[in-house]
């Protein structure tokens, strides 16, 4: 397999496109953590001795 050369245009195109796939991923992660914390709010806390 031959690798393509990385051009200046590729470097200029990537940073604005990077948030597009990251937004739903981080949004779903945040939503999952919020729902887990809503259903069992004291789970990370150890019970009193």
From TrEMBL:
Entries under Gene3D superfamilies matching the protein: Single helix bin (1.20.5.510)
Major site of localization recorded for this protein: membrane
Membrane topology category: Single-pass membrane protein
One GO biological process term: photosynthesis
Pfam families with a match to the protein in the record: PSI_PsaJ (PF01701)
SUPFAM superfamilies noted in UniProt: Subunit IX of photosystem I reaction centre, PsaJ (SSF81544)
Region spans: Disordered: 1-23
Subcellular localization(s) per the UniProt record: Membrane
Any one GO CC term of the record: photosystem I
Highest taxon, organism lineage: Eukaryota
UniProt KW keywords: Membrane, Mitochondrion, Photosynthesis, Photosystem I, Transmembrane, Transmembrane helix
Stored InterPro entries: PSI_PsaJ, PSI_PsaJ_sf
Family named by the database record: Belongs to the PsaJ family.
Record-given protein name: PSI-J
Organism, scientific name: Selaginella moellendorffii (Spikemoss)
Organism phylogeny: Eukaryota, Viridiplantae, Streptophyta, Embryophyta, Tracheophyta
């Amino acid at each position: 397999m031959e690798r393509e050369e990385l051009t200046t245009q590729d470097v200029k195109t990537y940073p604005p496109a990077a948030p597009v796939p990251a937004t739903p991923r981080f949004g779903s992660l945040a939503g999952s953590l919020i729902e887990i914390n809503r259903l069992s709010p004291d789970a990370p806390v150890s019970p009193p001795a």
